[in-house]
Structures are given as structure tokens and as C-alpha cells.
Amino acid sequence: MTTETTPPVARQVPAERTHHGDTIVDEYAWLAAKDDPATIAHLTAENAWTEQRTAHLEALRGTLFAETKQRTQETDLSVPTRKGGHWYYTRTVEGQQYGVHCRRPVRDGETDPPVSADGAPLDGEEVLLDGNQLAEGHDFFSLGAFDVSPDGRWLAYSTDFSGDERFTLRIKDLSTGELLGDEVPDTFYGTAWSADASVLFYITVDEAWRPNRVWRHTVGTPSGEDVVVHLEEDERFWVGVELTRSERFVLIDSTSKVTSEVRVIPADNPTGEPAVIAPRRQGVEYSVEHHGHRFLILHNDGAEDFALAYTSADAPGDWVPLIPHSPGTRLESVDAFADHLVVSLRSNGLTGLRVLPVGGGDGHDIEFPEPIHSVGLDANPEYRTRQLRFRYTSLVTPDSVYDYDLVTRELTLRRRKPVLPGPDGREYDPADYEQHREWALADDGTRVPISLVCRRDTPRDGSAPAVIYGYGSYEASMDPWFSIARLSLLDRGVVFAVAHIRGGGELGRRWYDEGKLLAKKNTFTDFVACARHLVKSGWTAADRLVARGASAGGLLMGAVANIAPDAFTGIVAQVPFVDALTSILDPSLPLTVTEWEEWGNPLADPEVYAYMKSYTPYENVAPVDYPAILAVTSLNDTRVLYHEPAKWIARLRAVAPQGDYLLKTEMGAGHGGPSGRYDAWREEAFVNAWILDRLGRA
Questions:
Q1: How far apart are CA 301 and CA 307, in angstroms?
Q2: Is 43 helix (H, G, I), strand (E, B) or coil?
Q3: What is each CA distance from 382 to 76, 509, 673, in whole angstroms?
Q4: Any long-range contacts for 405-408 (C-beta under 8 Å, 24+ apart)?
Q5: CA-CA distance, 617 to 578, in Å (whole number)?
Q6: How many whole angstroms from its chain centre is CA 494?
Q7: Is 223 among the catalytic positions?
Q8: 204 three-state secondary structure
Q9: Which residue out of 230, 344, 671, 675 is catalytically annotated?
Q10: Start-to-end C-alpha separation, the chain
Q11: Which residue(s) pair with 183 in the sheet?
Q12: Quick count: other Cβ atoms within 10 Å of Cβ 107?
């Protein structure tokens, strides 16, 4: 048991920097020295203080973890997906942290995916990769690539044992089970096979950890002989690589926040020179999907919410319109099958799927029963198929896998994630809960959607406690999702709300544009408006409301703590981007240059500098009464560096010492936190116990 009795006090070592005539003093810049023993000592002391301050919640944490575990079918099996002559699937085993990746041959006359009783292994299965074996001896484990070659012989996979998202790439011979000598360190996400599986394309990063090189590796040769196929020199752009569903082309994507360029290599000629589909033009985004004699182009050239066109696959040139731009209906992606196209879209704040027959005839939208839901395509590796696999969920409906017959329009539920009986022994019944869509009014008159879920008997007199979650950046949409761990909150009378604020993509590209760059403050004021709406409409009261967000949503948490500290009784900020100005001013840091099109470039533009300085949480800590704050971070995070929340908590303690601030650092994890499923459940139990304590429901 720790003997700490007072919170850690970080030493102040003033460091000055000047931009546009303005001098910033940073007393805690020294915390950025990750290898300094003083930094590790400070983080360790913070963890000890957090442990002491939450020791009274140990039993509750154990209860919440047990409830999640009790409601989860621990030995389970995903719905197998057919590719060629095999069904591919993943199993989990009770007591094991990670998935087991498997396949089983397709049997004569077998059209439906095989099932097993209680998640047991399928008869005749072949284990391709067991994450538990790979993770042995490591505190952290993550897979980057998992890519079976078109002929089914090779498996390319990559592993990360620290959380820094730098993977070691290997190739396994599935016919013998042996690993080849091929091994490539320090790779990034993304691989693609050539048609004959003789060549594997992969990606590496530059010194700022930006994925900038696509390499060609010949199977069976040393990695030192690998060849750079494409080098992206513009620091605003990331590269990606993938094989089209048709297995005809390798695509190399170069993308910034607002501009795209795609190159193609024939998969049967992997040493060929990449050909550009359309040269990059600033502000024009496009993606490519191969379909027969044409490339499908989803683009925003004169189409704010995107349009669909096509061009010749033999000689790419002009774009021929296929689906015109429709303001308010955001086209997000297109998937091509031999006889159908499927467009993923969103309208009125909800996701949807539109099916277009290739041979003519009217397209149609797949209908869904709930007014609030999320839907998206699952794995669909076969090009010649009439079955479409997709996932469906809502705030009350567990994750569901459907197969949809593209010809007959028959919908088949293959599997709904089991929710086992809870502590009271009752089966989960969605009818015990209800979900709502409400609209808050922002300061400028904009209506902002909110999704809510609660138990059906929850009072509407302001007495119920509530959690409000938000993100609001990068056009990422926080579509409704089901959570087993959340049931432990709902069953204790807590209302859970998601604020669909500007900066996200819930209401199309305009929604995103109105929450970025010099309009970023709309994200924060929208969130506060949603919190105020919950109080005004009787869902909760300010002293019963906890806000929660992660990453860029952690920036949101820090910003709303500064502008509306009275609106919340507690704030959870996970891997929070709270020292945004310092990071965006330093182009040597990971992600910085690529982020300038999201936040602006404060180095070059004094207006952007002044605007960011006016809202970034670390710069705006004030001697006010803040709500209780729990910040959670990871030492090896490469996306939001650990020292941002460490500095933020230190400054909060110095400037507003009457507050209750906790910092919890995972000393062996990355941006996503603990990697194993049980460890992730424990982390969620830790956070939810703290929330329930703040809400008086501990």
C-alpha cells in the first residue's frame, strides 16, 4: 500500500519560447524527456497518488470487472467469412487475453458459414496465428498486419510489443506452419500481395513517424534487398497500400487531411511502375475502387458531400458521373462486387447502405428497424458473390452480423453478440432500456444532435446522474454503439449520452468544416450546449454530470473544463491532446505537419497561433473551481505523447490547487491503452468506478 498523503508537486523549470512576438513560459517542459529518471519518478509518484486516492474504489472496480466478465461469453467464435476454399474466423478462449485466428476448408455443398456450440473450435480447423502464444512474456501485444496471400499459402503478419505502433513484419508458410526467414522491423500498418503471392508490399515511417515509403519485398529474399516503390516527400501526406477486392491492382494512397492522390500497380506485374489515377489538386479528395473495365472514383471535386464517378481502368482520364452530389447525403465509401456496387453513406446523422445493380435498374437503401443505429460493412473479400456481410448495432442492440442477398434482398441474422445474464441472473432484454435522439441549440443557433440511452424506468426530474461523451475532430463520427461494460452504469441509474458535435462527420462535410481550423471553438461550445440541454430537459443536473472524451476528445475535455467548469462534476480525459499549441508548433514531433490542415499552422500564421492559444487547455488553466479530473495516458503513445496530460495535471495543481486531479499512466502501453481484453476490462472498470464515485453511485 502506498504511503503518499499529498499529491505530487512537479518541480518548475521555466522554459521560454517566442512566436510572433509572444513569449510562452512552460514550467513543465522537462517532462517531455521520456528517458530522464526524474520524469519516470514523477509519473510513478502520480500513479501512487492515484492509487491512494482511489483505494476506496477497489471493491467496486472488482465488481464492475466481474459484471463485464459475467455478461461476456468468453469462449466465442466470430462468424466465419469465406475466401476461396476456406472459411476464416477468430476464436476467443476463456481466460486468454487475445484472439486465435483460424480457417477451415469449405466442404462440398456448404453455402452457409459453419457454427459451433459455445464458441468451440470448428471441426477440421487450422490455427493460423494464436495471439496468446505470440504475447507470451510481453506486457503488451498488438497485431498490425494480418494478410493471407491470394493463393492462401502465405500469411503476412506484424507484431508490436510496446504500444508504439512500430511493427515487425514476418511471413508464415501456411502449408507447413513454418516461419520464413523474411523479417522486416519497424513497419507500419498496411500490406498488399501481388497476384501470384511472390511479392509483398509494405510501409515504413520517417523520423517523425509518418508513413512515407511503400516497399516491395520478394518472398524468400533478405529485407535488405527490398525496393522502395513510392516515396512521399510532402510532409503533409501519409501513404497506404492495399490490394483491390478484384485482386487485379495494388493501390498506393497518398492522403493529407484535405487532398488525395492514388497510384496503381497491376497485381500481376508487381515490378511495374506505379501509375497515377489523377494528379493531386489541393483540396480535392478521392478514393479508388476497381470494378471490371473501370476505376470507381469517390470524390469531392465540386461536391462537398462527395459524388461517385468512374474512369477507364486501361487509360485513366476523365471522370464520368455515376452518382451526383446530393447535399446532406455524405457518400463515405464504395465497395465493388462483380454484379453490384454498395455505397456506404450517412444522412440525417445516421449511417446507411445503398445497393446499385451493375446491369441497370434502380438502386435501393437497405432498411433498418431502429430510429437510432449504426451500420457498416464487415469483411467481404469475395469479388464474385451475391452475399453482402455487414454489422449492425445501436445503443440497446448488441453487435449483430447480417448477410444480405443482393439479388433477393433477403436479410439473414448470422449472429448477435451474446449478453449473458448479469448479477441479478436475468437475461439481457433490450426492452428494459430506451434510446432517444434529442437536439441541443448551440450558441450560434445550430441544432446539435444528442443520442441517449438509459433504463426505461429512469426519472426525468433532474435527479438521474449522467455521462456525456464527445469527440468532434477529423470528421470522425461517434455513431451509436453497444457496450457491455456500459450496462453496469445504466443499471445503476446512469444516463449515457453522446454529443454529436461539430468537427465530427455526423451531419456531413459541412459539420466537419464548421468545427476545425478557425472554427474549432464550435466543437467546445457545442459540447457545453449539449450538457446544458441535458440539464434543462430534466435528464440530469450539473452536479450529477460527468464528461468523457479521448485523444482529440481529450482536448475537448480540457477546453470545456476551462470554458464551463460549472457544467460538470467530473471529467475523464483519456490520452488527451491538451497541450495542442506546443505540439503543433513543433514540426519534428510525430503527426505535427500532417495536422496543420486540421488545426492550422501556428508557426506560419499569427492568426492561427492566437486562436489556438486562446483555447488549448494547457495554456488556459486558470485559478477557478474545476470539476474533479481523471487523466489517463500511456507512456509509449506515439499519437498523443504522455507528457501532455502530465504537464496539464501539474499546472492544474499549481494554478488551481483546491481541485481534485488524478493522473494514471500505463507504463507499458500505447494510444489504445492496455492490449489484452481482460486488461482493457480492468481499465474500463477503473474509469467507471471513478465516474460512479463522482456521481454518488459508488
A1: 8
A2: helix
A3: 24, 31, 34
A4: 406/337, 406/339, 406/340, 406/342, 406/355
A5: 5
A6: 25
A7: no
A8: strand
A9: 671
A10: 22
A11: 170
A12: 11
What is the secondary structure of 565-591 as a DSSP string?
Answer: GGG-SEEEEES----HHHHHT-TTSTT
Q: Cα(13)–Cα(250) distance, rounded to whole angstroms?
A: 52
142 carries an active-site annotation: no
Q: Is 551 a catalytic residue?
A: yes
CB contact set of 66 (below 8 Å; sequence gap of 6+):
none
What the block records as the C-alpha cell of 413 is: 441474422
The answer to whether the CB of 31 falls within 8 A of the CB of 667 is: no
Ramachandran assignment for 197, one of left (phi > 0), alpha (psi -120 to 50 degrees), beta (any other):
left
Secondary structure string (H, E, C) spanning 256-321? CCCCEEEEEEECCCCCCCCEECCCCCCCCCEEEEEECCEEEEEECCCCCCCEEEEEECCCCCCCEE
Catalytic residue among 526, 637, 643, 675: 637
How many residues are given for the chain?
Answer: 698
Task: Please tell me which residue in 551, 583, 634, 675 is annotated as part of the active site.
Answer: 551
pLDDT of amino acid 2: 45
Q: 175-194, pLDDT tens digit by residue?
A: 999 999 999 999 999 999 99
The DSSP annotation for 129-190 comes to: EEHHHHHTT-S--EEEEEEE-TTS-EEEEEEESSSSS-EEEEEEETTTTEEEEEEEEEEEEE
Low-confidence ranges of the chain (pLDDT < 70): 1-4
Query: Mind giving me the DSSP string for 5-32?
Result: -S---PPP--EEEEETTEEEEETTGGGG
Instruction: Give Dmax over CA atoms of the chain in angstroms.
Output: 75
